[in-house]
Amino acid sequence: MWDDGRLCHGGDYNPEQWPATTWREDVALMRRARVNLVTVGVFAWSRLEPAPGRYDFGWLDEVLDLLHDGGIRVALATPTASPPPWFSLAHPDALPVTADGVRLHHGSRDTYCAAAPAYRAAARGIAATLAARYAHHPALAMWHVHNEYGTTCHCPHTEAAFRRWLVDRHGDLDTLNAAWATSFWSQHYADWAYVSTPRATQYLGNPGQLLDFRRFWSDTLLAAYVEQRDLLKAANPAVPVTTNYVLGDWVPVDHARWAAEVDLVAIDHYPSAVDGGAEEQTALAADLARGWARHGRLRSADPARATAPATWLLMESAASQIHTPGRAHTKEPGRMARHSLSHVARGSRGAMFFQWRAPTGGAERFHSALVPHTGADSRVFRESVRLGEHLDRLAEVTAGETAASVALAADAASGWALRHPGMPSELLDGHAELAAAHRALWRAGYGCDVVVPGDPLDRYRLLVLPALYLADDTTAGWVRAHVEAGGHLLVSYLSGVADPHARVHLGGYPGAYRDLLGLRVEEFHPLAADEQVLLSGGGTGRIWSETVQLHGAEPVGTYVGGVLDGRPAVTRHRVGDSTAWYVSTRPDDATYRRLLTEAARTAGVHPVCPDAPPGVEAVRRTAPGASWLFLLNHTDRPQRVPADGLDLLTGIPADGAVTLPAGAAAVLREHPR
Ligand code: GAL
């Protein structure tokens, strides 16, 4: 199985794009790079089933045998993210329809509607056929269902399924009408048949309807995954099943909710930033993945999972070029390894890439690969060989779990709700708020976990709610219980303002937390994109500001100038032995970092490696009686870091300090403490 104790190295392997002679070279090169897991067949449906019911498995049989002989395990994909041309011709009703009613056509990938019965039946069919043939193949390490669930649809099949989902969720139309506040703009529904998906419309759509559609679609995609998973499991229950999550606000998938349904959380990560932001984004993506893995572990029925460290897998990343808007950016030497180790430090069971070999044709021919167009005599391949060696030396870290005493709460629906165009500012972005808080903690050197409302908080000294917009009584009670148990809290603007249907809590913002925070927000003052407010102490705030009235809290910082001159911007409220902070604007990065450092200090939390120089990232994994310190030098100068232990990458002991060359990393097995 996949868990042979090693860290995984490898990526998407598309042998169907190459002649058989190349397969042999591939296996030889994979062995050189110590590749031990490859995803096969992810977009191969038209080569596996070139015409309805006519299968061609000869090439896949041969490839799987070759890989097995080479000691390389396979994450065998179900190819359902890209139905073949014959399918779209035979089932035009299964092609997706956009919100403005345009039916998309074959020619790219993902041209299917996940609610269309014909698509679902065909997906089950090919999954079952693959299961029957390969479920006991010795190369099979795991099933990789589909690819990056995330596309959406507004066709009649979707609409009918949406109505059924709404009946399940709301029970009756009165409840639906109340949840969606349909008395506004004459949207009251007197019959389920009147309800549609949120299509393109004249002006602002209904916020409750949009939110429910997102939830419904996440559940629909999940059902499509689950039915494939169940078929694969039925063929061989011992083989784990997963799917690779794609990250981004546009993705209509609640990954936390999915986490208990996958045997292993797997993510794809392609940072959009090319400067230092790429490292921050990498850390956040990995912390999110671990959060989902922890959340899934809590809900998993598998007893082995309940006691093991929260583990997940970086299923795809870029070996070199990062595709940023408008151009591709080539990763600097050493950067791919640091990103990989950042993921491993945060719980990934390895570092996998899209893709093994760069193709000569096809839409993504210039996407980077472990074997680039240049071939194996290339910097990128040499770096992947070195990474393979390093991953091999790090197997023991899998016993540890990444340590953190700060929790950041995130929930998909809050992010979706904040994007409604009827919000008081078009600059609101839940992921950006999470990223800003995470970045501040990352730069200050704190380890943090991302938690889902309701997750246990006993291990955290500080809980941060970054614009966690939606809260019902359960979420409010969860936050209160944390504070009453002695935990500290930092809440940023627009948290707890609305209920799960995006209806505003009355009586002053933020309705869910104002007592805990000892304040009441009376009015919002959103800022223009190019506007900022000055804060006492020299910082600035962007995006948002508010009229905050104190009801027990004390001001820590005030607005300077403008209509809010002298009024509280940041506050602190003592609750027993705990402190509940409130931040009513988006502070600049340095100010946010100072603030979170102060909140962490008050909570008794320390940075992972307090004396690490700026630009050196430190992450610790711990197990009973053992710990491993990952040190990543993101600067272009050598850096000396106080630390003790044995560097597993070089085999050199660090006695009091380790000197990291520019752009290099060390992983220390620390002396027992
Ligand atoms: C991923 C996708 C891969 C490939 C890659 C390119 O999102 O799963 O198939 O398209 O992006 O960056």
Topology summary:
Elements: E1 8-13, H1 20-32, E2 37-40, H2 45-48, H3 58-69, E3 73-78, H4 85-90, H5 117-134, E4 140-145, H6 156-170, H7 173-179, H8 207-235, E5 241-242, E6 244-245, H9 255-258, E7 265-268, H10 277-299, H11 303-307, E8 312-316, E9 322-324, E10 327-329, H12 335-345, E11 348-353, H13 379-393, E12 401-402, E13 406-409, H14 412-418, H15 430-443, E14 448-451, E15 462-465, H16 473-484, E16 488-492, H17 514-517, E17 519-524, E18 533-535, E19 540-542, E20 546-550, E21 554-560, E22 568-575, E23 578-583, E24 586-587, H18 589-603, E25 616-623, E26 626-633, E27 639-641, E28 645-647, E29 653-654, E30 658-660, E31 665-669
Parallel strand pairs: 1-2, 1-11, 2-3, 3-4, 4-5, 6-7, 7-8, 8-11, 13-14, 13-15, 15-16, 16-23
Antiparallel strand pairs: 9-10, 12-25, 17-20, 18-19, 18-21, 19-24, 21-22, 22-23, 25-26, 26-31, 27-30, 28-29, 28-31
This protein binds beta-D-galactopyranose (GAL).
Structure report:
The protein has 673 residues and is of the alpha/beta class. Among the domains are: 256-398, no CATH class; 406-603, Class I glutamine amidotransferase (GATase) domain (Rossmann fold, 3-Layer(aba) Sandwich); 616-670, Immunoglobulin-like (Sandwich). Helices cover 32% and strands 21% of the residues. It contains 18 helices and 31 strands. It has a 10-stranded mixed sheet, with helices on both faces. 51% of the residues are buried. The mean pLDDT is 96. Beta-D-galactopyranose (GAL) is lined by residues 147-148, 246, 268, 270, 316, 354, 364, 367.
